[in-house]
Amino acid sequence: MGPLASDPVIQSAIANRLTQEVMDQIDVETLVNDALSALGDQDLPPRVTQALSALEQPLTNGIESFVHRAATTVVESDAFETAWVDANRVAHQELVAVMQGDPGKALQIGDQGQLTIQLAGMIDQLKQQLVDSGFGIAANIPAINASFTLVQTTQLVKIQNAYNLLDVVGTWLPWLSLALIAGGVLTAVRRSRALVLAGLALAISMLVLGLGLYFGRTFYLGALTGKVARLDAAEIVFDQIVGFIRISLRTVAVAGLVVAAAAYFGGSSDSARSLRATIGRGFGSARGWAEGRGATTGPVGTWLYAHRAFLRVVIVSLAGLVIVLAAAPTPTLVVTVAVVAALLIALVELLARPSTEADDGGGRPA
Fold first, then answer.
1. What is the CA 277 to chain-centroid distance, rounded?
2. What is the pLDDT of residues 95-111, one digit of tens each?
3. Which of 170, 191, 224, 365 has the fewest CB atoms within 10 Å, measured from its CB?
4. In this predicted structure, what is the pLDDT of residue 52?
5. pLDDT under 70 in the chain at which residues?
């Protein structure tokens, strides 16, 4: 939620909310009316009195515009961003408590499924900003228990009811899925083909989940149409919440495609064998051309040839570890690691050379 503090749409929405709360507490219309009435009691000429009555609405709008400018200054400041991040950090901790049934202070879930964050601290900043700008009456504003709705959906109540179950099984579901995939591949008659299908199925399942997020977003925003003041802010909040989920879906989908491609290339199908043979002949031709000009890998190439299968396993295993141990795997990381691993395997194949009689010390004596 941190990046939302610097989003112009969210800043505008919160500035409007803060302005509304302050204006409600100040009661500007009554304040302006009393001031104009006091001036009207000063035996002013009729034309002046009539002009004063015409100033009521412009003065009210001017004060509201002044408060809104101060609110905008607050939400665009570094202090607001710090307060927003701190508030959301506390809210995240309290969200767990709320899901477990414990009451929260910074974050609350309403009866209609509103997930709200408290704005009291930010309103205090706005009051001080108004006082510093010469609007001393703002010091009389009482403590305001205002909130800003982050999400509004009845699903939050259902999530709260299912939280304990999700907390127990959520940790093990990914590992269970991987175990089932591995079991299916190991028990298959044609393992390479099964691994290709498993990788493609994984990618397709991520695509289905991605479509689910897309349609869920559409239904969510459609349900809020006409019910919230800033639908554009609700859209940005939703995208921010599911942003990491989308990255995860894309990462797993790309990983599935990489696994499927690797399994196909290493499989026993006629097309895969033909492709490997073509590449092998290309490497052989390159080695022959280099050796014909005196460039050879010598004993190193012989050793690489003898251990090339083991080296492939090592390279693939290291590539897998890099992806698994990455703090934040992304599709770019998966593709980069896969390309680097493929290049390393190709380099091993290029440098590896079968031993010859000359390497073994054989041959006929002169």
1. 43
2. 677 666 665 555 555 55
3. 365
4. 53
5. 26-60, 95, 98-131, 133-161, 164, 356-366
241-249 long-range contacts (CB < 8 A, ≥24 apart) are: 241/1, 241/151, 242/213, 242/217, 245/213, 246/210, 246/213, 247/328, 247/330, 247/331, 248/329, 249/206, 249/209, 249/210, 249/213
- CA–CA separation, 73 vs 77, rounded Å? 6
Residue 339: the pLDDT is: 92
Q: Report H helices in 133-171.
A: 155-169
Global confidence as pTM: 0.61
Give per-residue pLDDT as tens, 194-210: 888 999 999 999 999 99
Classify burial at 180, counting beta carbons within 10 Å of its beta carbon; exposed 0-12, middle 13-18, buried 19 or more.
Answer: exposed
**Computed over its alpha carbons, how large is the radius of gyration of the chain?**
34
Helix (H, G, I), strand (E, B) or coil at 226: coil
User: Can you name the residues that pair with 118 across neighbouring β-strands?
Assistant: 147
CB under 8 Å to 190, separation ≥6 — which residues?
Answer: 267, 268
User: Do the beta carbons of residue 70 and residue 130 sit within 8 Å?
Assistant: yes
Exposure class string for 120-141: b at 16+ Cβ within 10 A, else e: eebbebbbebbbeeebeebeeb
Q: Which residues contact 146 (CB under 8 A, 6 or more apart)?
A: 17, 18, 21, 118, 119, 120, 123
Q: Element (H or E) spanning 216, and its range? A: helix 191-224
- Rounded Cα–Cα distance for residues 242 and 213 (Å): 8
Find how far residue 120's CA is from the centre of its chain.
28
DSSP E strands in the chain: the ranges are 107-109, 114-118, 147-152
- pLDDT number for residue 208: 94
